[in-house]
Structure to design on (229 residues):
């Protein structure tokens, strides 16, 4: 079945460093791809999404490009802040069985230090 | 908009007791999802509803778990009897129309501890 694989964390960076969190997927169809973020003590919230190949999703300085050829959707940010410390989840939409649901990766914890 | 509302935020109970978690989706949303989050298994989809009808409950771990959605503004997830391995954070989420491309909005979660 469909699946999502993320790089293991935690990722520890200094403020203003460049961030990459790798995400690859396996899917039989053409899923939409998502990044969700979970701040401490809160639920998940959508960070960005892309619905077709070569689309770039962006929000709050974060970007990810839907790469069908490499089945990847890596998350990047040019300069992280302490407030970006959170757990990041990559996800895809699964249309198996004629209905739609999200398949999440295991999550990657990011810790940014001043 | 108040967002997805869950109650209680924290629940501590003893093994064997019945636990009921509650969720109020965003008004107008027609899909509702229940997830469970643990360190060991990550985020798992338990069940989801469309227009108050359960569509897929294949993620429900066993018969001790049940979920209902009696109307468009309320859903419950019940565990009876509860066991220590049910300790987790349970999230409710809702969305509208095609969940493939529309955002799922998550509630703040209920942290359940079964002693």
């Amino acid at each position: 079945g469909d699946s999502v694989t993320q790089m293991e964390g935690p990722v520890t960076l200094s403020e203003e460093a460049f961030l990459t969190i790798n995400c690859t997927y396996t899917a039989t169809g053409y899923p939409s791809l998502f990044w969700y973020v979970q701040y401490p003590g809160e639920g998940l919230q959508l960070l960005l999404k892309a619905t077709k190949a070569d689309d770039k999703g962006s929000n709050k300085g974060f970007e990810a490009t839907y790469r069908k050829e490499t089945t990847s959707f890596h998350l990047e940010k040019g300069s992280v802040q302490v407030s970006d410390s959170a757990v990041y989840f990559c996800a895809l939409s699964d249309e198996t069985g004629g209905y739609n649901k999200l398949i999440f990766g295991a999550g990657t914890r990011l810790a940014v230090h001043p | 908009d108040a967002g997805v509302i869950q109650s209680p935020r924290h629940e501590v109970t003893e093994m064997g007791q019945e636990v009921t978690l509650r969720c109020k989706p965003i008004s107008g949303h027609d899909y509702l999802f229940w997830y469970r989050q643990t360190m060991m298994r990550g985020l798992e989809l338990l069940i989801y509803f469309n227009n108050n009808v359960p569509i897929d409950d294949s993620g429900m771990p066993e018969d001790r778990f049940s979920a209902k959605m009696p109307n468009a503004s309320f859903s419950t997830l019940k565990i009876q009897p509860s066991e220590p391995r049910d300790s987790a954070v349970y999230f409710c989420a809702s969305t509208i129309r095609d969940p493939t491309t529309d955002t799922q909005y998550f509630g703040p979660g209920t942290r359940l501890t079964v002693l």
